[in-house]
Specification:
The structure is a single chain. By secondary structure, this protein is mostly helical. It has a single domain, classed as Na+/H+ antiporter like fold, CATH 1.20.1530.20. Helices cover 77% and strands 0% of the residues. 49% of the residues are buried.
Length: 410
Amino acid sequence: MQSSLSIEHAKHLLASFGTILAAGTLSGFAAHKLRIPDVAAFLLIGIVLGPQCAGLVNIAPDSALNQLILIFGSCYILFDGGATLRLSVLKEVWVTITIIATLGLLITAGVTAVAAWYFLGAPFIVALLLGSVIASTDPATLVPVFKQIKIRERVAQTVLSESAFNDAMGAILTFTVLSVAMGQGEFSVSNALLELAQQSGLGVCAGGALGYLAALLIAHEKYDFLAEYAPVVTLMAVLGAYLGADSLHASGFMAVFVFGIVLGNKERFGFSMPQEETAKLDEYILTTSLIMRMFIFILLGSQVDFFLIRQYASGGISVVIVFILIARPLTVFLCAWPDRRAKWQRNELLFMCWTRETGVIPGALAGLLVGMKAPAAPMIASITFIAILMTILLQATTTRWLAEKLGLLE
């Protein structure tokens, strides 16, 4: 009996996976024809396939399978995003990235908290917890958007790098505020920044070391005996970077992002691969990233709780409007404008104000709060999903149009 139940469960999962792949392929093709980012199409088709509509995809948000897909998918997309960045560009804008991913996240969380306190009537500590959850941007959304839409290089790489670096800060801030909300500690900006530096530093070291080792094994003139297995090496290294950094209480997402940067810039470290091997690896990474996007965003869409969203719709939409139109522009202009070295143009800053989708990482943080029975966790989760829906459907789909209007398309 137990065996047959396991087989039936496995068949159900296979059917769900097949449905996700088929629906993702068709919606991705439609998105390409309509010239919109595929993540928006995946999110919408996920809502249609979910248990509250067609019921064809029903994977619980708190299940081990769902967490596995979210963690590994986010890691691989982050690795892919890191591999597209160029160190020569990052040298020019690193000051902006550092400030906007740290101080900028605190500004965003604070402004959003005030909006939540005003529109929802929530206690300020709960409002600050909500602001902390949705303050970080989402690399899993931004990487594929910038893969499909060629934006001026330094703008795209600044936004991508910020999204990777501020994930760690967002998680640290969320759990710091949570400890205060549950009466287990006191909030301290200095402690939060110190912990961020520690987690980020260890993550950078772990990712850099594994990136160099992977490049050595697949692209060194003498020691590249694993060159034919480059795709497998990248898979192992992505997992190793995340789990290794996590075991050191560091940022696993930071580690996989830096691993991608090192491997993507391997020529600057004296490594090179034959053209045909490079093409095979690029094709493998492209296909794997596409599959991860399908699974992540279709699952996110299928898990939208319409009852909770309706319950908090009015106040939640007001909070997200403030979040998009006030908190983000204030953050960008306060943190990027003073960077005289980068010499940001007004059009570039306006584009960065609009491009800051919310997605997988805030969704995962909201899910963790629900599982931990944090104060007002259902309300925080519902507004997080409103932010995900609004930012992806409004901002991601208008990225190409805005970039064209501002003269930033390459």
